[in-house]
Structure formats: structure tokens, C-alpha cells
């Protein structure tokens, strides 16, 4: 979390001049085993922070059997060690506050905690670190560890890039000082433009559980925000913003313009037509263009190249760009995160290739490298003295191993030393930049929340999204819309796709070619009312509540309090998806959307229906028996998976045919096939 907090020992005037932002560790609670332990995390320092102090708050626990006189931990930042300490003589969770040298800070920072956890008290220990490694050598880093930054805020300049830097900053978003504002009853084109902007922001912001809200000009919280993105056609702009533009200059172009008023910072995005407004919003959704625009205005025409760079997917992922050196006897580990394009997942035949260099003073009878995928060991390799300067090995992922859209490659190295080796020679190993993951992948093909929103994306962008919204939008409807598209933006890596809004049921041809999202109540949204018979959780005839089904018994009054998110096979095209987020009241649809807004929330559900009540109890269900979007894709995957077997079978069949033909020719040659006279 972050916020503006007073600092102990300061006057109130001094405290008011400082801002504080606390960044929790990205890692979940992590337990490390072995004499030598090491883990890394990352945090950011924004360019507009004038740093006063940075503090690491490390929450950890070590083995109760550890020798506190010999065990030690060292903290380094961006590869530079700056603090070492020994754990206290106490059991349970410990907290250590460590001042981080400001001279070591960069924009993106890698913080590493390493050390040794020793469990013996023998006198020999003080002379020789070659100790038996057991599961009792462990360190746990608690997820509540954090880095606290105290700073003064530099005000944004009049340029667009400076506004964008502040607007996207994690402290700005956590403190709810960034907002996207649209007209009170925004048109379909204005809603689409605001969603392009929102998804572009969701793609780059670093806060996991916070988002930028889309709200109306009348919303009080939106009016109070320090950084506001105004998205509207020229005719719908408030007077204070309309006067910034000359209508004649907006002919055939959209415009972005910076302005500051009464301590608030605005970026106004406008055009005369919805088409040009969408084009200008795509400019906002392109982080490269926004960070390169070092002036207060930007013109966007139909010829402006606003699309984000295409993802070059080759299936080859470099694990590290530098040599990662691990030093110390015993077990050492290094982890790497691999992310697949969001609309694809693992297919059989993927491999991990590891390139190593290591010391020659190892006990090569026991020296070993092991590769783990998401904690599961998939292969090991013995180290050898003759390969110490250039060792490489490849392991193949087991058939059918599910990777999802991202996975962790962990390389474990056992580096024992021989008894004859000098204790001054510290064993080491280096993982080289030529280490790669080669992932064979196939398109995601599940019509379930475990594959959402991937099934609404193609080539990492929106796949023809048709959004059917309430004719009259309430404040709750805007919150619902924000939740739905925040998650889509997390996964969309490009702004090339299309998002189209409709306030009534679109034509059949549009529904047939689109992935459809419908939200709101059945009385607000006629499409939801017409789809009621196809919903897993159906409304009663009066549309005043949900009724029981085979998965859940629903009491009449309880059914009036529920919100649901349902992922259906589109009745307009069986190879397309249909998401319905609904309830009797707009606020109940919003409750259901709270389970669709972040990766952490959606990861709880593997089925195709979510139910949320007013006490925030949420349950997931699966209704459809056939989860596949396109059965032909599955058949092709099976053919590809068994292609080699089919080749062998074809060769064997060919051999059998050749043998049979040869036998027939021999029989015919010796006149053994006919009934005529035979000759010896």
C-alpha cells in the first residue's frame, strides 16, 4: 500500500512536504533450503521522486536449529552488497529495518537477500564450512516484507510525457489520484475510446490490486483527483476544456492537450468524430508514443501510426541477459520467470537448455544441476571437470505438463567441494545468457474462466469485442466496465484490436463474428433479457431474482441479492465466447465484476460461472461438459502430438505391403498360386 504519511520526529509542516510509498515484495512467502540461500525481488523508483530515504523492512524466519553465531544474511541492491547481519536469538518471525543507500537506487531495482544458515555448533565449524546439508537449513522470507520510499514529489511539466509519467505512477494509482473521465451519458464511441485508454494503462502500471477508474464528469471523486484524463468528443466537452480548442483546427484530426487548473493536472483527448477520438485514444494507449511526446500538444490524424509494436513470438525465451554467478558450497538456486503470449499455452516438445561455467574444485562425484518447472523437477545433469569452462545440457518437459501462460524455471546447483580442497577456495557456478527456454505452444482452447480473458484475445490484442451495455449507465455500471477492461488490459500486449460498444442488441452478423460482453441488469440490457433461457443462472419471469438450478439451491429473497458472471458458448457462433455480467440491480452486477478485475481474483475460478452475494461470498461452478472452443483445434493438436507415431506406423505398414507383394511374386513365380499341374 502507499499513502501520504507523517514521519516520526518531524514537524507537521515538514511531514506534509514528504510523501511515502510502500512497495510489498512481488514474491509470495518463500522458503529457501540449504546452507547457502538466496532470493531476489524488484521495486521501482519513479523519476519524479526526490528521494529522502529508502528503507527495507525484512520480515523473515530461520530454522530453530540454526547457529545464530555462524548464520548470517547479506542484502545487496543492483548487484552491490551494502548490509550484513546475524539473526537475533529468538524464535518465530523477525523484522529487520535496513536503510538503503540512495546512491545505489535506479529506476528499476533488484534487491537480493543471500546468506548461510548453519545448524552445527562443533568447533570444526569455525574452521571448515563443508557441512552436511539437511532440510533443517532453511530461511523463510515473508510476503509482508516491503521497501518504503520517502520522497518529495516533483510537479509535472506542461509536457505530455511528464503527465503520463505521473498518471501511470504506482503511488498516484494507489492514492486514487488518477482517473479517466467521460461525459455523464457517454456515447458508444466515447466509451470505446476510454476503454482503449484504460487497457493501455492497465498494461503498463505496476500495481497488482489497484486500477484506474473510468467515471463521469459529475463524479465527485473523479473531480478531486490530481491527474485526470478527459476523453470526449468536442461537442461533449465541459466549457472549461472546450475553450482550449478551435473547432476549425479539429477538422480531420484528434488532439491531445495538457492543461493545469486549480492545482489539478489534465490531459484532454478530443476530436469531432468518434472514429478520430478512438484514434487519439489509441495514441494514449501506446506507452512508447506517450513517453516520447515532450511537448504539450499532439495531433492525431488517420495517417498517424498509433499501433503498439507487434509481439515477435518465436517460442524462444532467453532466461538471463547477464551471467548469473552463484557462490558458495552446498545447494544454490536461481529462478527465472517465462511468460507466453496470452492467447497461447504449452504443447508437448518444449525444452530448457542451460549453459553453465563452474569452478574446478568441486567434488564432481556429487556435483549436480537440476531444472525445476513451477517447483517440479524435470531433469538433472552431472557436472564434470572436463566441461567446467563450457557445459551445456537440455531437458525436455514431460508430455502433457501444463504451463499456463507463465511459468517459473528454477535451476538448482549442488556444489560440494572435495575434502582436499582449500577452504579459501569458494566454489562457484555461473548461468550463462545462452540459457534458453524453447516452448512449443498452441492456442488456448478452453471456454472456461481458467482461460479468460485469453479467449477474448488474439495475437495478444482484443479479438473483435462487441460490448453490449445498458442504454442508461449508472455509477455502478461504470465501475463494472472498469473492472472488466482492467483485466483485459493486463493481458493485452497490443492496441491493434477493436472494441465496439452497443446500447441495444447488435445485428445478427455482428454478433456472429464477435466475442460478446454483455453487462448490466435484464431491464437495462435487452440482450441479457433475451439470453435468459441460455444462462446457467437464470432470472425468474419477473426478472426480480435468480432461481435454483442443479448446482445451487437459491432461496427467493437470497436470489434478489446475487450478482453473476457467466461464460457461455456464444449462441450466435459456437466458436466464440459470450460473457454475461448481471444481477437484478446494477450494484449486484458490479459485485460479480469484482472477481474479473485482477489476475489474482480470476485465478480462483476454473469453471464457467461465478456467483457473488452482498456479503462478498463468492463461489465458482462449471456447467458445460465440452470445454473446447474449437474441437478441430484439439484434433489437430492430437495429430501433431502423435505425428511421429503415425510416421512410424506408416513406415511399418509400407514394409508389410512390400513383404506381402514379394511373397505373392515368389508364389506366382513358382506357380504356387494356380490350380494347374505342379512341377518339382
Low confidence ranges: 1-15, 122-130
Task: Please give the share of residues in helix.
Answer: 10-25%
Envelope shape:
globular
Count all strands and give the number. Answer: 38
SSE class:
alpha+beta
Report the C-alpha radius of gyration, rounded.
31 Å
Overall pLDDT metric: 87
Give the biggest sheet. Answer: 7 strands, antiparallel
| Strand coverage percent | 25-35%
Report the span from N to C terminus. 100 Å
Q: How many H/I helical runs?
A: 15
Task: Report on the architecture of this protein.
The N terminus is likely disordered. Helices cover 20% and strands 31% of the residues. Strands 1, 2, 3, 5, 8, 10 and 11 form a seven-stranded antiparallel beta sheet that branches. By secondary structure, it is α+β, with helices and mostly antiparallel strands. It has 15 helices and 38 strands. Helix 4 packs parallel to helix 7.
Amino acid at each position: 500500500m502507499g499513502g501520504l504519511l507523517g514521519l516520526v520526529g518531524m514537524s507537521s509542516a515538514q511531514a506534509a512536504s514528504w510523501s511515502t510509498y510502500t512497495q510489498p515484495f512481488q514474491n509470495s512467502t518463500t522458503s529457501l533450503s540449504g546452507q547457502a540461500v538466496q532470493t531476489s525481488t524488484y521495486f521501482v523508483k519513479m523519476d519524479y521522486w526526490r528521494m529522502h530515504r529508502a528503507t527495507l523492512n525484512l520480515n523473515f524466519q530461520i530454522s530453530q536449529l540454526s547457529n545464530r553465531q555462524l548464520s548470517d544474511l547479506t542484502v545487496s541492491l543492483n548487484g552491490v552488497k551494502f548490509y550484513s547481519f546475524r539473526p537475533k536469538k529468538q524464535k518465530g518471525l523477525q523484522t529487520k529495518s535496513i536503510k538503503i543507500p540512495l546512491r545505489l537506487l535506479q529506476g528499476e531495482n533488484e534487491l537480493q537477500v543471500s546468506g548461510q544458515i548453519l545448524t552445527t555448533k562443533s568447533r570444526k565449524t569455525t574452521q571448515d564450512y563443508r557441512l552436511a546439508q539437511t532440510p533443517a537449513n532453511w530461511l523463510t522470507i515473508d510476503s509482508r516484507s516491503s521497501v518504503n520510499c520517502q520522497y518529495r514529489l516533483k510537479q509535472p511539466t506542461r509536457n505530455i510525457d511528464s503527465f503520463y509519467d505521473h498518471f501511470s505512477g504506482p503511488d498516484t494509482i494507489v492514492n486514487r489520484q488518477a482517473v479517466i473521465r467521460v461525459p455523464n451519458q457517454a456515447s458508444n464511441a466515447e466509451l470505446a475510446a476510454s476503454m482503449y485508454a484504460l487497457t493501455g494503462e492497465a498494461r503498463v502500471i505496476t500495481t497488482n490490486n489497484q486500477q484506474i477508474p473510468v467515471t463521469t464528469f459529475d463524479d465527485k471523486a473523479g473531480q478531486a483527483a490530481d491527474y485526470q484524463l478527459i476523453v470526449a468528443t468536442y461537442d461533449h466537452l465541459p466549457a472549461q476544456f472546450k475553450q482550449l480548442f478551435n473547432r476549425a483546427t479539429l477538422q480531420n484530426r484528434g488532439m491531445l492537450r495538457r492543461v493545469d487548473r486549480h492545482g489539478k493536472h489534465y490531459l484532454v483527448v478530443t476530436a469531432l468524430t468518434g472514429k478520430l477520438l478512438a484514434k487519439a485514444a489509441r495514441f494514449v494507449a501506446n506507452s512508447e508514443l506517450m513517453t516520447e511526446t515532450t511537448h504539450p500538444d499532439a495531433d492525431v490524424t488517420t495517417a498517424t501510426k498509433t499501433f503498439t509494436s507487434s509481439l515477435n513470438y518465436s517460442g524462444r525465451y532467453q532466461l538471463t541477459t547477464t551471467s548469473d554467478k552463484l557462490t558458495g558450497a552446498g545447494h544454490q538456486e536461481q529462478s527465472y520467470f517465462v511468460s507466453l503470449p496470452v492467447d497461447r499455452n504449452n504443447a508437448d516438445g518444449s525444452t530448457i537448455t542451460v549453459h553453465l561455467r563452474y569452478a574446478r574444485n568441486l567434488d564432481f562425484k556429487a556435483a549436480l544441476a537440476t531444472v525445476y518447472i513451477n517447483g517440479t523437477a524435470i531433469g538433472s545433469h552431472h557436472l564434470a571437470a572436463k566441461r567446467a569452462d563450457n557445459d551445456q545440457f537440455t531437458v525436455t518437459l514431460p508430455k502433457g505438463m501444463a504451463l499456463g501462460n507463465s511459468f517459473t524455471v528454477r535451476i538448482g546447483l549442488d556444489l560440494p567441494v572435495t575434502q582436499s580442497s582449500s577452504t579459501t577456495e569458494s566454489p562457484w557456478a555461473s548461468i550463462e545468457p545462452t540459457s534458453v527456454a524453447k516452448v512449443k505452444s498452441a492456442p488456448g482452447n478452453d471456454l472456461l474462466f481458467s482461460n479468460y480473458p485469453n479467449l477474448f484475445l488474439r495475437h495478444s490484442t482484443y479479438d473483435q469485442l462487441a460490448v453490449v451495455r445498458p442504454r442508461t449507465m449508472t455509477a455502478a455500471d461504470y465501475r463494472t466496465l472498469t473492472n472488466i477492461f482492467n483485466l483485459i488490459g493486463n493481458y493485452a500486449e497490443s492496441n491493434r484490436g477493436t472494441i465496439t460498444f452497443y446500447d441495444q442488441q447488435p445485428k445478427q452478423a455482428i454478433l456472429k463474428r464477435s466475442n460478446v460482453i454483455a453487462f448490466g441488469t435484464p431491464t437495462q440490457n435487452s440482450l441479457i433479457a433475451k439470453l435468459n433461457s441460455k444462462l446457467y443462472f437464470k432470472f425468474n419471469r419477473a426478472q426480480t431474482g435468480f432461481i435454483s438450478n442443479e448446482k445451487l439451491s437459491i432461496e427467493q429473497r437470497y436470489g434478489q441479492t446475487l450478482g453473476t458472471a457467466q461464460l457461455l458458448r456464444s449462441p450466435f457462433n459456437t466458436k466464440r465466447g459470450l460473457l454475461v455480467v448481471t444481477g437484478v440491480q446494477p450494484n449486484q452486477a458490479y459485485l460479480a465484476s469484482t472477481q474479473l478485475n485482477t489476475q489474482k481474483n480470476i485465478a480462483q475460478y476454473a469453471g464457467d460461472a461465478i456467483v457473488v452475494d452482498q456479503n462478498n461470498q463468492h463461489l465458482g461452478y462449471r456447467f458445460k461438459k465440452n470445454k473446447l472452443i474449437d474441437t478441430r483445434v484439439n484434433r489437430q493438436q492430437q495429430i501433431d502430438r502423435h505425428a511421429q507415431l503415425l510416421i512410424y506406423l506408416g513406415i511399418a505398414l509400407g514394409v508389410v505391403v512390400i513383404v506381402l507383394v514379394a511373397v505373392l511374386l515368389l508364389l506366382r513365380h513358382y506357380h504356387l498360386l494356380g490350380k494347374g499341374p505342379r512341377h518339382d
